[in-house]
Structure formats: structure tokens, C-alpha cells
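@channel sequence for tomorrow's demo:
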Amino acid sequence: MKKGWSTGKIVGVTLGGIAASLVLGISFVISVYQLSYFFEKMDQKSRSRYDRVLEENSGQERKEDDFSEGQKEPDEEETEDFGGYSSQPDGEYYDFTNDIRSDLSYQVEFRSFLKNDFVTREGAGAAVMEYSYPQISGDAKNLDGINDALQEELRIVEEHIASSVDYLTGDEEYRFEGVGYVTYMSEKILSVIYVEYGYLNGSYLESYVVSYNVDMETGMLMNNTHLLAVDDNFSVDFRKRCELQNGVIENLDYMSDQEITYYLTDSDYLIIFYTPLGMEVGFNYYDGWVTVTYRDYEKYQKKF
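C-alpha cells (generated this afternoon):
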């Protein structure tokens, strides 16, 4: 989904520093163009995130940890152990948190990544990328391939920022932050998500949730669109559950059931991952994202 800014975002960013009195108007222009760009992207036939990761990373040898020049190499001081954090299935709905276990054949550590030296044209603004991501170790099949696939998201974000930063003026800063969560661990399944936010001069610009599910028995990524059988009836139920859990979301009110089905069956937009409560299901859309907790997800699983 992060393939550079739309024309609207470029226009909005370029005009951003003209005058303080235009801030509200420019924000409106950005929003309108973001909406236009969102529907434009729906018609693109570009390779999805999961197509790319499944084809390029599964079973390959581990690449070097340097994603690009300027990466801050993780060291022992930057490595965090979240072993004491664990979500308990005592709530009705899921909140983003880590579910780290220490009794499995593999282990998880979190590492940090910082990049602030993106090459830009003379006089352009600055960009900063800051991330936390999980590193898997221990006894697991295709361990290098799993780690490389989980770090692919960082490379995608880097490309996104590099293609956008030249549109900034000298006094503007684009900051992109991502927080990784291990939402579920077992000997059979590992689920990892990234919650991402982009800011322009400290103001919200974009956000995404990206989910990865790994079959730990084979060491291969699962295809997210193959986990549940989604049709228009599922989307009708999703809408009802979403309102019960999240309240009224105006963006969903403007979507038809068929549009919701589209987002829930397209790997570029779908959000789906395992948790101690069951499964979290949702999608990214032009102005944010939404998820719903499914304790009864098993009855919607695809039959093969």
C-alpha cells in the first residue's frame, strides 16, 4: 500500500509551508486527494505485499541485516526483551499487545531501527524512519527465511519514504514510525503485526496495520486471504460486529457490503492475525484502518 505519495499528497505537502492561514484549507485538499488516490489504487494491478514476500523470501538465505546505508545497526543495548509481556484472554475484545512465550522451541527479541539520512534533492526537507521489529531465534524451520520476511516490511517502508521525501520543502519533516507486536506464539503459529503512522511536521498524514502469519511447522508464510471464507454475508456480519465493538465509523457507513468484501479479500488491504482471544480481522482504507475481534473465527475458516 505504501508506493509513494499520490499527486494530492504531493500538492498538499508542497503547499504546506506557504502560509499558516492556509493550513486548514490545505488539510482539506490533502484529504480529498487521498480519497481520490485510494480509489485510483484499487484499479492498479501491482503485485501485492504478500505476493512479493511469499515469492521472494520464503526459503531464501538470510540477507545481511543492513537494509540500506544509514541504518542504525542493532546492538545489545538496542535489543529489548519483552519476555515479561503477555496478553491474557480475559477481555471481550483484543487490544494491540505482545503475547510472548518462553516455553517454546523458538524465541523472540525486539530490535530497533532508525534511519534519518535519506538522500534528497538540494533544499528538500528531512525524513525520519523509526521502527521496532521482532527477531526470531531458536529451533524453527526456515528461520532465516522467516526473519527476512518479517523485515521485508521495513524495506517496503524505506522505499515509500525515499520516493516521497523529495516533495518536502526545506523546513518540512516527514516522520514514519512503526511498532511491531508479536500477537500470538505457539509451536504451530506465529503472528506478527506492524502498527504504522506517518506524520508531516508533527501532524497525522497516514496509518496502516500490516499483518504476517507464519506456519511454524513448515516455516512458511500463510496466505492471509486463505485463512477465512469471506463473502458478502460475512461482510454484513462484520459491519454489525464492528459497530458493536468500535461504535459508529463514518467511513464504513459510506461503504457497501460489496466494498467491505473487497477489502477483506484483497491482500493489500486485509488485516488478519491470531491472538489469545481468537483472531483479529479488519482492513486498511484510505483514511485509516479498522479491526474486529473474532472469538468464533473457526466457523469461518476455509474448508480445503
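heads up for whoever presents: The longest helix spans residues 23-42.
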